[in-house]
Amino acid sequence: MKSPKLLLCSSTVGEIQEVIHPAKLVGAFIVGDYSEEEDGYWVCVEVSEVKEIPEGMVSLVVPKQKYAVITHKGPNHQIRSTYEQLHRWINDHQFERIHRAWHLEISDEWGHDRISDIEVDLYDTIK
C-alpha cells in the first residue's frame, strides 16, 4: 500500500483540501504501547498532499507498511471475531504483527444512524 497522508476529521470533510476519496473513511490506531499523542482512534480521509490544516484538525502521515487484510461484513459488535480470524491467519502463515505501527480500518461508509451492519477492510501491520 502506498503511504497515505491523512487528516483527522472532527466535523466535516468539506473543510479539508486535496481529499482523494471523500466517501472513504480511514480509521487509524496503534495497537501496542503508545505515546499520549498516539492514543485513540483517528478518523481520517486520505489526501494527495497536506496543504492547509483546518482548525481543530491535525495531519497524520502513515508510513509505507506491509499489511494483512480481511474484510469484516456484518454487525459492528462482531468485528472482534473478524480480527481474531485475521490474527490466526497471520500466525498460521508465520508473519509477525507489528503492534507499534499504524493499523487501519477502511470503509466506504461514514457512520450512519444504523451501524449494526458494516463493511470495513481491516489492515493489520505485519513483518
Apparent shape:
globular
Distance between the termini: 14 Å
Please tell me the overall pLDDT: 83
Secondary structure class reads mainly beta
Pattern of helices and strands? EEEEEHEE
| CATH overall fold name | Multidrug-efflux Transporter 1 Regulator Bmrr, Chain A
What would CATH call the class?
Alpha Beta
Name the helicity range.
10-25%
- For the biggest β-sheet, the strand order reads 4-1-3-2-6-7-5
Features:
127 residues; mainly beta; Multidrug-efflux Transporter 1 Regulator Bmrr, Chain A; globular
Tell me what you see in this structure.
Strands 4-1-3-2-6-7-5 form a seven-stranded antiparallel β-sheet, with helices on one face. It has one domain: Alpha-Beta Barrel (Multidrug-efflux Transporter 1 Regulator Bmrr, Chain A), CATH 3.20.80. Helix content is 11%, strand content 35%. It has one helix spanning 79-92, and strands at residues 5-8, 25-30, 42-47, 59-61, 66-75, 102-107, 117-126. The protein is built from one helix and seven strands, in the order E-E-E-E-E-H-E-E. With 127 residues, the chain is mainly beta. Residues 15-123 form the Integron-associated effector binding protein domain. InterPro entries: Cass2 (IPR029441), Reg_factor_effector_dom_sf (IPR011256), YobU-like_regulator (IPR053182). This is Transcriptional regulator YdeE.
